[in-house]
Structures are given as C-alpha cells and as structure tokens.
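Hey, resending since the last one bounced:
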Amino acid sequence: MRLHRLDITAFGPFGGSQSVDFDDLSAAGLFLLHGPTGAGKTSVLDAVCYALYGSVPGARQSGQGLSLRSDHAAPTTRTSVTLELTVAGRRLEITRQPPWERPKKRGSGTTVDKAQSWLREHDAVTGVWKDLSRSHQEIGEEITQLLGMSREQFCQVVLLPQGDFARFLRADAEARGRLLGRLFDTHRFAEVEKRLAERRRAAEAQVREGDAALLADAHRMQQAAGDAMELPELTPGEPGLAEAVLTAAAVARSTAREQLDVAGCRLAAAESAQAAADRALADVRETARLQRRFAEARERARLLQERADGHREAQARMERARKAEAVAPALELREAADAEHRRAAAAQARARALLPDAFADAGAAGLAAAARRAAEELGGLESARRAEQRLTELVQERADLDRQERADEDVLAEAEAWLAGWEATRAGLQDRIDSAQEAATRAEQLAVQREPAQQRLAAARTRDRLAGDTDGAAERARRAQEETLTAKAHWLEVKEQRLNGIAAELAAQLADGEPCAVCGATEHPAPARKDAGHVDREAEEQALAAYQEAEARQADQERRLGVAREALAAATAEAGDSPTGQLAEAVEELERLYAEARRDASALHSAHEELRRAEQEHERRVAARQQAEIRAAARVGHRDRLDRERAALEEELTLARGALDSVAARAAQLERQVALLTDAADAARAAEDSAERLKDADARLADAAFRAGFDTPQAAAAALLDDAAHRDLQRRLDAWQSEEAAVRAVLAEADTAAAARRPDADPAAAEEAAAAAGRRLREAASARDAAARRCAELDRLSARSAAGLTRLAPLRAEYDRVARIAALAAGTSADNERKMRLEAYVLAARLEQVAAAATVRLQRMSSGRYTLVHSDDRSGRGRSGLGLHVVDAWTGRERDTATLSGGETFFASLALALGLADVVTDEAGGVRLDTLFIDEGFGSLDDQTLDEVLDVLDSLRERDRSVGIVSHVADLRRRIHAQLEVVKGRSGSTLRQRGH
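The structure tokens again:
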C-alpha cells in the first residue's frame, strides 16, 4: 500500500482545505511530520485512517462523526477527506464526508445531512476515474479485503501510535494477549475453546440426563420391589452408578420371583377351600328351598278349604247363566222392537208439530191427500216462474246496453283526442329519422379517416420506442468498442512481454551439444532464465482470443445499432415530425366524434319502428271510432223492443204472485207445505207399524223364558251375564281348579316331603362360610397378581435400564474425549503443563515471530547489545505463553523488558513495531506496506542512538518503503530534509510542505 495524496477540508484543527503530496514526501524515503504540541500532527494520521475505514483510532471517534468537524470551519463548509492510494496494484481514490449539521436553507435552525462516501478507480488505459461505489458498507468491505487488515491492525502496523508499544513491552501476559488477539484475529481459536467447552457441557448434560433417567428407573424399581431393593447413594454423573443400579435390580428381580412362587401356592389352596364351601352352600340352599316349598303348599291347601263355599256358589251362578243364554235372542229382539217404536213415535210427534193446527187430528191417509192437493197447485206456477226469469234477463240486457253505450262514448272521446295530435307526432318522428340518417352518413366519413390516423399514431409510438432502443444500442456499441480496445491493449502488452522474455523461452529448448537456433553455438554457458512474470505462447493466444471475441461482440453490437437506426428512420418517415402526444390527441378526438356519430346513427332503426307503430295506432283509432258509431245506431231499435216485452211480463206476474213478493216465493211456500205433509204422513204410518212389531216381540219373549225354566222374562234377563262378567267368573273357577291340582302335586313330591321331615336348614351360616372362603381366595389372587406385576415391572424397567446404558455408552465415551480435549485447550488439564490456552499458544507463536523480526532491527539500533526473545515461563499464578524478555549481550543475562530505560524502551518498542508490521503484513496475505508512520519518542535518545535508529529507518528504503516520523524534536528537522510542517494559528492549523 502506497499513499499518493491527501486532501483535508474542515477536519480536526484544519478550518480550511489542506493537501499533502505523499509522492513528493516519499521520494527521499524518510520524511518528518512536525509542529507545535496540539497543532494537529496526529490529525493528519487520523484523516488517513478515516478515509480508509470511516472512523479514527481510539477515543477520538465519538458520536456519529460530528466531532471530526473543525471548530474553525465556516458554517457553509462541509467536512471532507479525500485519499488517493495504490493497493494491490489498483490506484483508488476514497472520499468520505461525515454527518454535517448545517444551517437550514429556508427558515432558521439547523439540519443534519447524512454521511457520504465515494470510491473511484483510475483506469490506466483510458486515463479517467471510474466510479465504483457510494455505499459505506461496500467501500469498507472492499478496502478491508484489499488491505487484508482491520482498522485496529492498520493503526498498529501503519500508524504506530504514541506509547502503545512501550506499554506493550511493560504489559503483562493478559494485556499482550488482548492486543495480539486484535492484531492477528485469533478470535477463531477462542471460538474453538468456546465450542469445545459448549460441546463438553452438552455431552455432560446428555450423560447426566441419561444417568438421571437410569436413576429414575431405579427409583421406580425400588417402588415396585418395596423393601426388597436398596439403591446406591450416588448422583447422576458419578462413576459406578450404572453397575450399582444393575446389581440392585438383579437382586430385586430374584426376590420378586420367589415371592411369586409362594403366592401361587397360597392361591391354589384358597381355590380348593372355596370350591368346598360353594358345594356346601348349594346343598343347604336346596334343602331350605324344599322346606319352604312344602310349608307354602300346606298354607295354600288351608286357604282353599276356607274358600270352598264361595266356589260352589260360583259354579251355581255359572249354570244359571248358561240356561239364560237360550232366552238371549228373544230378549234382544224385544229390546230392538221397543227402541224402534220409541223412535217412530218421536218422529211422528216432531212432524205433526210443524203442521198447522188444522191437521192435528188427521190420520196418515188425510195427511197424504192434503199433500197431493198442494202439489197440484205448485205445478200450476211453472209458467209464471219462467216469465219471472225472462223478466230478470230483460233487466240485465237493458243494463248491458247502457254499459256498452258508455264504453263507446269513452272510445269515441279517446280516439278524437289522439287523432287531433296525429300530424304533430308524425312530423316529430320524421325529423328523428332525418337526423339519424345524417349521423350515419357522418359516421361513414369519419370511419374512412380512422385507419390512417391510427397507423400514423402507431408509427409515432414505434418511433419513440426505437429512439430509446437506438440510444441503448449505441451505448452497448460504445462499451463493446471500449472492451475491444482494452482487450487489444492487453493482447499487445502480453505479446510485448512474451517478446521480451522470448530468450528464456528459446533457452528452455536448448540441449547440451545441440546448436542454438539463434547463434548456432553448441555451448550454452549462461542461458536466459524465466522470471516470475514470464508469458508463454498459451497466455498470448488466450489474450488474442479474448481480443478477437471482443472484436466480434463489437461488430455484432454495431450491426444491431444499424438495424435499430434503419427501423427508426422508417418509423420517422411514416409518423412525420408531429409529437406522439399531439397525434394521440387527434386520434382520440376522431374516435370521440366517430363514437358520437355511431351513437346518433343507431337511433335510425328505432325511429323507423316507432313511426310504423304510430301509423298502425292511427289506423286502429280510426277503425275503433267507426265501429263505435255503428254500435250506437243499432242500440236504438234493440232498446225499444226490450221495453215492450218487459211491460207485458210484469202484468202477467202480478196475477201469479198474489200477496207475496214474487212467484218464486209463492212456489217455495207450496214446496215447503208439500214436504211437511208428506213427512207427517210417512211418520204416522211408521209409528203404526212399529207398535205391531213390539206386540209380537213381547209374546215371543214370554214363551222362550217359560221353556228355559224361568218364571218370568225378567228373571231370565237377571240371570244372563255379559261377556266381561262371564270371563271373570270362568277365570275364578279355572284358577281354583289349577291351584287345587298344584297343591296336591307338591304335597305328593317325595324330595319335598323328605326335606320337610329334616331339621330346619341355616343358609346364613353357610353363606358366611362361603364368603370367608371367597375373601381368602381374592386375597390370595391379589397377592399373586401383585407379585406377577412386580416381576413384570422389574423386568421391564431392568430391560429399559439396560437399553439406556447401551445408548449411553457412546455418549459417555464422547463426553470423556471432549472433556479431555476441552480441558487441554482451556489450559486446565494436567497434561497441559504450562496451563496455556489454545489462543495463547497461537499468540505465543505469533509473538515469537514478532520477537525474531524485531531483533534484526533492535541489534542494529543497540549496536548488537540487545536481543528480544519470547518466553513460555509462567508469571506468578497466571498462565504462560506470552512472556517477552530482552537479552543483554554485555552482561549475558536475560531480563524482563520492563527494566529497560526510557531511550532503550523507545528503540526496543520501535523495533517491535517494525517487526510486528512485517509479521502482520505477511499474515494479511503479503500486502506491501510502502508507507509507515512513527509517532513520537525520539526525544529520549542520545545523538549516537538517534543516528543508529535513523540508519535503521533509512534502511527501509531498500524495500521501497517511505517512513514518516511524527515528532517535534528540533534535531530531527536538521537531519531530515523532506518535511511536512503543521502550523498552528487562531483561525485553525495549516500544512506547509518542503521537498527533499
């Protein structure tokens, strides 16, 4: 990395714009940055760091970057830092502007503009700067990747700060570890330690979880086994837990199986006792049942003897009922005749009550004769009834004529009113037809204009689109041309490099004794050698192929550009120069007029149809008026005929109605009289017939009762039973007979009689004995089942514990392995004799490299007296690995770096800083650090030591490096001619540069 130029505006103590030309300062290899205390020497280095990383070292970075702004700057001047440098063969320019609190453009107060960043790269071929990014994150990532180091590493390696390495020399192992960890980015080794510790804890948790599960199963086995199992007093994770649990489980299983055998024997004995008790209980219950059966039969026989008289009476009652059944038909016949006679007498009384008093004593014959006379009079009124019906029809016809006359008058009035406006209606419809016809003609004319206008608009839009495509094609053709030029330049450069190294390529083909193809000599004392950047034929051919491909892409892009331009010219010729918006408005107006004309023309058909319907309505109205006038003339004669016929009918009906209102009322009166007389005559005849039938039924009933053995018909009726009473009496007789037979059968049973002769049975005692045997059986069965369950549960838990131990074995082995490695990496293992952590071990190797690199320069600075060495010894109770000692060649003794004097500490820390820069550079991927800064400390050196230190710094030029010394020591201004002076003033600091 080489710095070229730094531009500062309103940054730190610099109120205005300042520039530093590092190319001019670095020409001498060693330059001095000096100025009064507080002038801003360190701010120049802060500006370099801010440009690269967007922040400054240490505590000087605060807030959001607002503190970087100079207090001497004008309110309208924005803080800006621009750095031009070369890194990894690329020349870059970085510009950064921190947040800026500026006055508002409108109103009072201030506003904050966001921070901005720019990254540009110089193109050596075209000689122009190309923008790469404006993103803070992208620029930071790009710079960090190119430099290969973080901001902290950069500040320690390039910007060697005041006193940091002196403190590093005097620091303890922990402080050195923190600093080296930031420089060499060894946090990944700390992460390895952390991951190992996490894996150890995870494996330990799994082992403890497995032991906890095993111990939980052991507690379950103890609960299942009762007092037969004793658990070991161990906790999860302790060794020997698994073996102790398995041993206790085996003892518990053996004890449980013995208890199961004993419980089985007890269950068999209890089952035998239960069977004997059940048989004895069954015998006692059977004896008790037979004894109860015999006693119940004796009791039932006594009850039958007590009810014997009632049974004989029921038998006699059943016998009389059987005799009375012979008289039942005659009784039913007499009851039917009596009921019929009562109904006929009631009907006769009702019919006579409706007749006038004149017919109260008339017999059936007299009533029938009166009915015939009334019927003859009713027949004489039929002609009057027809005349009355015709009169009603005449009245209805006359009303219809009046209604028709009124309807025709309404038709005539409506027709006259409609026909009065006919001419105006027809004229309006004709005007609508004419307007629609004109609109149709206008629509046809506009339709002819639409297609050309739309084609011109489409051509204009195509013209606009092709104009954009042409610009894009032109840009792509330009980029293709640039790529071709770049590829061609690269090919020519590669070709030139190959021609420059062609001697080495030809020398590779030489063989001893064979003539050289160039000079013909057979001896080749000093053949050319290929250097590291040698270019062979294959590289040249690849560069040529890349150039040819770029040239082909350029030709293709130029062809596409020509096609786009031809299409644009054709579209422009068709569309003309009119803007697309104007053509679109014209097409839109034309479409609007065309749509309006189409809409108006669409009313032509409806107007024709409406005129046709109006003419049809006119014809219908004229015809309706004529028909109404014809019907009015015909109604005059018809009305006169109806009036004459009505007068004749009314005269005839006056004679036929008599005192009633109508002939129909007189006819209804006669019809009702005929019906009443006829009904009364029929009822009188029915009453006479029913009386004869009742007399005959009484005679038959008396004869049937005498033959059945009853003194009177009433006695026979009393002996007769209805169906329900007969069934009830028969049921009681059958029940008596069944009960008597059942009692006799029980008393005749031999077993029952034998049981009755034995002593009374005691079922309660037998049941109690059987219950006691059942309880003993259930207790034995429960004990046997509990023993079986205990064995099964112990077997299941033992098998699960064994399976768990099998699964846990790999986890335990993994835990032992991880725990051993984690303890070794953490420095807590007994195998780690120096108690050195993994990260400390890596840092110790880096510190050993730094000490070796620093010793080279320290020996020159101290005239070979001092040598820096790395020490693995432990300091106090701490851990070892980061010790740093100095070996004094004058005394031959090794001592701690904290015992060095002030001047010795300075050049030792300077040598350490330079060595650290070399090691970090190699660690960062070999990025060259061509510009270094050393801040203060030279005032503590005597003249001889200062000369030696400057000789060492001056020797850095051999590696094409430039070193900037930051100091206010006056002697250095005499020794170093290239200087950058910081001048302090009331309006801010300024920079003054002097060349070499």
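Residues 394 and 645 are 8 Å apart (CA to CA).

Sorry for the duplicate.
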